[in-house]
Design brief:
Blueprint lengths: L1 E5 L4 H12 L4 E6 L5 E2 L4 H5 L10 E3 L1 H8 L2 E4 L1 E7 L4 E6 L5 E5 L2 E4 L3 E3 L12 E2 L4 H12 L5 E5 L3 H12 L3 E6 L10 H13 L4 E3 L3 E6 L3 E6 L3 E3 L2 E4 L3 E3 L11 E2 L2 E3 L11 E3 L4 E4 L6 E2 L4 H15 L13 E5 L2 E7 L2 H6 L4 E9 L10 E9 L5 E8 L3 H13 L4 H4 L16 H13 L5 E2 L1 H5 L7 E4 L30 E4 L4 H12 L5 E4 L2 H4 L6
Parallel strand pairs: 1-2, 1-9, 2-5, 9-22, 11-18, 12-13, 12-18, 13-14, 21-23, 30-33, 31-32, 32-33
Antiparallel strand pairs: 3-4, 6-7, 7-8, 10-19, 15-16, 16-17, 20-21, 23-24, 25-26, 26-29, 27-28, 28-29
Helix pairs in contact: 1-7
Length: 541
């Protein structure tokens, strides 16, 4: 079998290597536009910040090493320019010589990846304006950063890579501003969670301005300022991280079906044409919850889908169950992660979503380095299926996310996932794991044992008509009556059992315990503010 793979990095190299392991008799050729066939793209921001010191640490395999390890024939600096499915041929250009050559195949894999979006504005070609997509990009950026001439930087794009770049610029003593057209940072987080992250970034010295369009970049030979629809920002350096676009223009006229520039594939990784597959950042997969097409330009997706495609090309009949939009990101003093549907997405898909926001310990509270997680858990009120999780904290947020991924992929309900025997020791977790703790609170809410106002509802005026009651560890809300939980053994003087009361504590737990007591003593209209003053700005007018 003669297999031609267009593209390397994650998907292409994974498919080619797995094919050779499945059938050593296959003839597998990889055509790669760049000179580096396999590199750690997700590690590039950390190379800029000297967290990763050596360029060689970013290179997973050189073409020579990869070829020796796998038996694959590798041709770098070779760009595919045309696919002829009827003749089963690909035309490609040697970028070193300009020579055009034709390659035939029995099976074809399209894994050409994506390139950074270049905004349609003036000034993108000025000195000290960078993209960060390849090792060469990161090397050039680090050279400028290390020169000592850069004091202020503007990062255009508040997605995962943009924020990681901003963090690493700050590590090098540069003051970064982050600008984004979207209303909030990090797609895939609900508004209240994104706003909390934005506040933490501001506190860490990384201001984020959202809802603003960059209209131009100005300077002599080097960048001097970034123009927006609102104001200008001085900058010695600009990093453009405003998204990526699949490298699929050369497929026009081939008959390969595409959606928004991405190659559409089925669960087997096949395109609409026989013997042609696609994987990685240039391809469209499926959402595991909704079954709808989903773009997942992630190294994890590329590797998982690539491995499955190689097995199918070798005679297997495997189906990729799809993606959940799972992501995790390290920020200054803060880690964030998410998976599944947001509350808004869940409603749009026809679910009846119910959620809870908790602030829970990330390990035994008495253990050195203990902190908190803010977790938003979303489920369907009717079926009680887990639909999504978002988590913020200084600890191992990926553990919470990965437990949620497992539950969602197995179509688990909250009841299925309750009482799991998760790992516990004081340095690692709490006796009831933070995921389980949050799940229990959501079950209490669904079953009516906990009645709340969510942070989103609170921000939108949902507490209007409620009297705020301070039940923090110590009085913390000026102007609000304070109730010490442990002293409540009957009706509370000054609080009417018929009155609408919003109980607010530091994190939510003491307010829940107070609500439980007050219900026993005849109070009918209490609500707990989820997340307490840790997550919400609470003032008494």
């Amino acid at each position: 079998m003669k297999v031609l793979v267009l593209g390397g990095v994650a998907a292409g190299t994974k498919i080619a290597a797995k094919l050779m392991r499945e059938d050593r008799g296959s003839e597998v050729v990889v055509l790669n536009k760049g000179k580096d066939i396999s590199y750690a793209g997700c590690g590039l921001p950390y190379y800029v910040g000297h967290v990763i010191e050596e360029r060689e640490q970013l290179i997973v395999n050189t073409p020579e090493k990869y070829a020796r390890l796998t038996g694959v024939t590798v041709k770098t600096r070779t760009e595919a320019t045309k696919v002829d499915p009827a003749a089963k041929k690909v035309t490609a250009v040697d970028l070193n010589t300009g020579e055009e050559k034709t390659y035939d195949y029995d099976k074809l894999v399209i894994a050409v990846g994506a390139s950074p979006v270049k905004p349609p504005i003036d000034g993108c070609d000025l000195e000290h304006v960078f993209f960060v997509r390849t090792p060469e990009d990161a090397i050039k950026l680090r050279e400028v950063v290390d020169s000592g001439d850069v004091k202020k930087a503007v990062v255009v794009g508040a997605g995962y890579i943009g924020l990681e770049i901003a963090e690493n610029l700050k590590l090098r003593g540069i003051r970064p501003f982050v600008l984004d057209m979207a209303p909030h940072v990090l797609p895939g987080f609900d508004r209240e969670m994104a706003e909390y992250i934005e506040g933490k970034l501001q506190e860490s010295g990384i201001p984020v301005v959202t809802g603003v369009a960059v209209t131009g970049i100005e300077g002599g030979t080097k960048v001097e300022k970034v123009l927006t629809g609102k104001r200008a920002y001085k900058a010695d350096l600009v990093v453009l991280s405003a998204g990526i676009r699949p490298n699929t223009a050369f497929l026009e006229g081939s008959g390969i079906e595409m959606v928004k520039g991405t190659v559409l594939t089925n669960a087997r990784g096949e395109t609409n044409l026989p013997d042609i597959y696609a994987a990685g950042d240039c391809s469209m997969v499926r959402n595991a919850l909704t079954g709808k097409p989903a773009w997942s330009p992630m190294g994890s997706t590329a590797n998982i889908a690539g491995r499955l495609i190689a097995q199918n090309m070798s005679g297997a009949d495997l189906s990729y169950r799809g993606v959940l939009g799972t992501a995790v990101c390290k920020l200054p003093g803060l880690n964030v992660g998410r998976t599944g549907l947001t509350q808004e997405q869940a409603a749009a898909e026809g679910f009846q979503p119910v959620s809870v926001v908790t602030v829970v310990d990330d390990k035994a509270h008495y253990f050195p380095g203990a902190g908190s997680f803010v977790i938003k858990m979303i489920a369907d009120r009717i079926s009680r299926r887990l639909l999504g999780v978002q988590v913020i904290g200084g600890g191992a947020v990926d553990k919470v996310v990965d437990i949620a991924v497992t539950g969602i992929m197995l179509r688990g309900t909250l009841d299925d996932l309750a009482d799991m025997d998760l790992a516990y020791a004081p340095p690692f977790s709490t006796a009831i794991h933070p995921f389980e703790h949050t799940l229990n609170i959501l079950l209490n809410k669904i079953e009516g044992k906990l009645e709340t106002i969510t942070p989103a509802e609170f921000a939108e005026g949902g507490a209007e008509g409620y009297r705020i009651v301070d039940t923090c560890i110590t009085p913390s809300i000026p102007g609000a009556p304070y109730v010490e939980l442990t002293e409540v053994e009957g009706p509370v003087e000054g609080l009417d059992p018929e009155e609408k009361l919003l109980l607010v504590c530091n994190k939510g737990k003491r307010a829940y315990l107070l609500q439980n007591r007050l219900k026993y003593y005849g109070y009918k209209n209490t609500r707990v503010l989820e997340g307490g003053i840790t997550f919400n700005q609470v003032e008494v007018s």
